[in-house]
């Protein structure tokens, strides 16, 4: 793991510890990379509860409760799907904050409306609606996925509740 990801994971961990909250992740295009970065951090069991890798639509439905209608209407790569993934991660865990990622890392799979590099994120806190955003990253598959991991963790930090 590179130094930036190591540092970012440590900052996230410290912030979660200070707030006494546990994190759950729901990942598609990153294939568990966020969970890998987190669990490479010593002591992460104190602030990381579990992760879901839901690459297929069926997994998103079965493991996270994403609605079939959401996938049909908005697509797997959409803020609506990311939001349902984040909410599902909380509903199917003991965590109180979550992050979800779904996107098109390439090199194929893009379309004019959703080109390669389109990645949708959602962050959710217990008993609140998810907040979502879409980013457009550039580079090869590995670069896009890495940028998504960084964005997911930075977005989590920006959306954590204030300290007690």
What structural category arises from helix and sheet content? Answer: alpha/beta
Mean pLDDT: 96
- Kindly report the CATH topology: Maf protein
Q: What is the CA–CA distance across the termini?
A: 32 Å
CATH level 1 name: Alpha Beta
**How many runs of DSSP E, i.e. beta strands?**
5
Separate helix tally:
6
Number of domains: 1
Question: Which regions have little confidence, pLDDT < 50, spanning 5+ residues?
Answer: none
Helix coverage percent of residues? 40-55%
In one word, what is the shape?
globular
Could you characterize the architecture of this molecule?
By secondary structure, the protein is of the alpha/beta class. The protein has one domain: Maf protein. It has six helices and five strands; from the N terminus they run αβαβαααβββα. A five-stranded mixed sheet has the order 2-1-3-4-5, sandwiched between helices. α2 (33-39) links the parallel β1 (23-27) and β2 (48-53). α1 runs parallel beside α6 (141-159). The protein is globular, with a radius of gyration of 15 Å. 44% of the residues are buried. The mean pLDDT is 96.
Keywords:
164 residues, 6 helices, alpha/beta, Maf protein, 5-stranded mixed beta sheet
Q: What topology emerges from the helices and strands here?
A:
Layout (H helix, E strand, L loop, with lengths): L2 H17 L3 E5 L5 H7 L8 E6 L3 H8 L3 H7 L4 H13 L5 E7 L14 E8 L5 E6 L4 H19 L5
Parallel strand pairs: 1-2, 1-3
Antiparallel strand pairs: 3-4, 4-5
């Amino acid at each position: 793991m590179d130094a930036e990801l190591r540092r970012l994971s440590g900052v996230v961990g410290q912030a979660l510890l200070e707030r006494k909250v546990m994190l759950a992740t729901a990942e598609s295009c990153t294939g568990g990379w966020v969970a890998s970065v987190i669990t490479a951090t010593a002591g992460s069991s104190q602030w990381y509860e579990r992760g879901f890798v839901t690459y297929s639509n069926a997994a998103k439905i079965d493991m996270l409760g994403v609605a079939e209608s959401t996938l049909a209407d908005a697509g797997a790569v959409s803020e609506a799907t990311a939001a349902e993934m984040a909410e599902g991660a909380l509903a199917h865990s003991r965590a109180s904050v979550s992050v979800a990622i779904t996107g098109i890392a390439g090199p194929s799979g893009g379309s004019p409306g959703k080109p390669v590099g389109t990645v949708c994120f959602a962050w959710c806190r217990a008993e609140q609606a998810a907040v979502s955003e879409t980013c457009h990253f550039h580079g090869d598959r590995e670069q896009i996925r890495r940028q998504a991991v960084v964005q997911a963790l930075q977005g989590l930090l920006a959306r954590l509740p204030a300290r007690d």
